[in-house]
Automatic annotation (TrEMBL):
InterPro entries: EGC1/2 (IPR044206), Expansin/allergen_DPBB_dom (IPR007112), RlpA-like_DPBB (IPR009009). This is Expansin-like EG45 domain-containing protein. It comes from the Eukaryota. Residues 23-131 form the Expansin-like EG45 domain. GO terms for cellular component: apoplast. It comes from Carya illinoinensis (Pecan). It is found in: Secreted. Keywords: Secreted, Signal. GO terms for biological process: systemic acquired resistance. Its main location: secreted.
Amino acid sequence: MGLGIRALIIVSMTIFTLTSVANAAVGTATFYTPPYVPSSCYGFQNNGVMIAAASDVIWGNRAACGRSYRVRCIGATNQGVPQPCKGTSVVVKIVDYCPPGCQGTIDLSQEAFSAIANPAAGKIRIEYTQI
């Protein structure tokens, strides 16, 4: 592959990464455990396990229902698990409302949280992007 093409690919990847990071919001995530139905958005419809409940920050009076978010762990919120992140991201669908007093921006299903972080952490710092 020519040097020019390699440089173009690297520049394109850098721009894409910077654009993606620029659009990401920062917040916190917690998790909840089954059963996942009924939910505020879909009643007794089963939406699988890669799901989440939205806090007031993104709920928007049910406008968040059905939205998908890419969520990535970026760090710990406590001293109990200083490095909880697994270095992966997960895509979740908003199916429920996390009521006032919710401890995170997004309350992930146990399975979604476990895919990106050690569940022993309980609460993590995240970047999230609507997709």
